[in-house]
Amino acid sequence: MSICFAEDNFSLIAPRATDLMYKPFNIGSKFRIVPPDTPPSTEDRIDLIMQRGAFGSGEHETTESCLEYMTELPCIKGANILDLGSGTGILAIAALKLGAAHAICVDIEPQAVATAYGNCRLNHLETQVTHVTGTLETVMETDFDIILANIYGDILLDLAPAVVAKIMPGGVLLLSGILWEHNFYVRQAYEKRGCRLVSNRMLDEFSTVLMQKG
């Protein structure tokens, strides 16, 4: 089901001011991760305002890899996005700042959903995002232009039929959080369901796979 937060309710789950403070840092070629109330970038970077908390602020190698891929996707303009296992909401926020039209963020953890909502509000994107607590089955919408899934490879394997069913023909799947040993099996699972491999990037421990549905 979709959820939203009233102003008073959000204040109950918002992190303390001391939890928000960290130094801005660049990620990828186009983005800068910043805490709230940071002056805008003067280096022609896109600021992603992220509160520091249990779900991090975007430092992981798989997040950076996804952000790099997203800057290279011309189809992101006007796209309808599903961010599966959205965590902080950073990928959906980045997609919207790159020109996507709307995003659905879904996560099984209520605290993650609350964090994503707060980050979307900090970035003034709350009207372009629907937040869902639950699993992929909870999302009723289909025909997404892009599905972002930075989750574990074994979960991507289990969800392959359902994920492919949610994306429109020609749509793009950006799958990350995949350990090296799961990489081949994830690619194979999605190829068997009519997706073609566009790019496969091996990171230090994990990997990111870009695929397109036929």
Summarize the structure in words.
An eight-stranded mixed beta sheet has the order 1-7-6-5-8-9-11-10, sandwiched between helices. A three-stranded mixed beta sheet has the order 2-3-4. It is globular and about 50 Å long. Helix 3 packs parallel to helix 4 and helix 6 packs parallel to helix 7. The protein contains seven helices and eleven strands. 32% of the residues lie in helices and 30% in strands.
Give short descriptive properties of this protein.
single chain; 214 residues; alpha/beta; 8-stranded mixed sheet; 3-stranded mixed sheet; 7 helices; 32% helix; globular; disordered N terminus
User: Structural class, judged by helices and strands?
Assistant: alpha/beta
Overall shape: it is globular
Q: Uncertain runs with pLDDT below 50, 5 residues or more?
A: 1-19
Helix content range of the residues, please? 25-40%
Tally of helical runs = 7
The number of strands is 11
Terminal Cα span: 30 Å
Average pLDDT across residues? 87
What is the C-alpha radius of gyration, as a whole number of Å? 16 Å
The biggest beta sheet reads: 8 strands, mixed
* Residue fraction in strands: 25-35%
Element-by-element helix/strand order: EHHEEEHEHEHEEHEHEE
What is the oligomer described by this structure? single chain
Widest beta sheet: strand line-up? 1-7-6-5-8-9-11-10
